[in-house]
């Protein structure tokens, strides 16, 4: 499973919001085990984030460092778009995910 590498540790503490909040941040969840992924999706929701199924572990490169979904606060719609926009051979400028 892979999910919490797409958020800075300090943001885990401050960005969680109740379900349905207009400013709720989304987090990608990637994994190969369907049942384990369902458990992580529930955990992400309980922690105050909208989980977005990001596919298999083979697809999890889409939210690694220097990709459009890496550690950038996005809502679920924006996160889906960022994951789709990721290109293996294109990196964001170094540090662009830092405030």
Characterise this structure.
The radius of gyration is 13 Å and the shape is globular. The longest helix has 13 residues, at 34-46. It starts with 8 loop residues before the first helix and ends in a 14-residue tail after the last helix. It is 29% helix and 8% strand. It has a domain at 4-9 and 23-85. The mean pLDDT is 95. The chain has a two-stranded parallel ribbon with strand order 1-2. 31% of the residues are buried. β1, α2 and β2 form a beta-alpha-beta unit. It is an alpha+beta fold and 99 residues long.
Please tally the helical runs, counting DSSP H or I stretches of 4 or more residues.
3
Q: Give the helix proportion (percent range).
A: 25-40%
- Could you give the order of the helices and strands? HEHEH
* Sheet with most strands: strand arrangement: 1-2
Which class of secondary structure composition applies to the elements? alpha+beta
Q: Would you identify the regions where 5 or more consecutive residues have pLDDT less than 50?
A: none
Termini separation (Å)?
27 Å
Biggest sheet record = 2 strands, parallel
CA-based gyration radius: 13 Å
From the spread of the alpha carbons, the general shape counts as globular
Strand content: 5-15%
What do the pLDDT scores average to? 95
Number of strands: 2
């Amino acid at each position: 499973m892979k999910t919490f590498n797409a958020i800075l540790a300090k943001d885990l503490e401050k960005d969680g919001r109740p379900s349905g909040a207009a400013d709720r941040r989304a987090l990608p969840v990637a994994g190969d085990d369907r049942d384990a992924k369902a458990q992580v999706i529930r955990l992400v929701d309980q922690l105050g984030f909208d989980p977005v199924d990001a596919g298999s572990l083979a697809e999890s490169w889409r939210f690694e460092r220097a990709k459009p979904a890496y550690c950038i606060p996005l809502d679920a719609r924006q996160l889906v778009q960022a994951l789709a926009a990721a290109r293996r051979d294109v990196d964001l400028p170094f540090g662009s995910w830092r405030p």
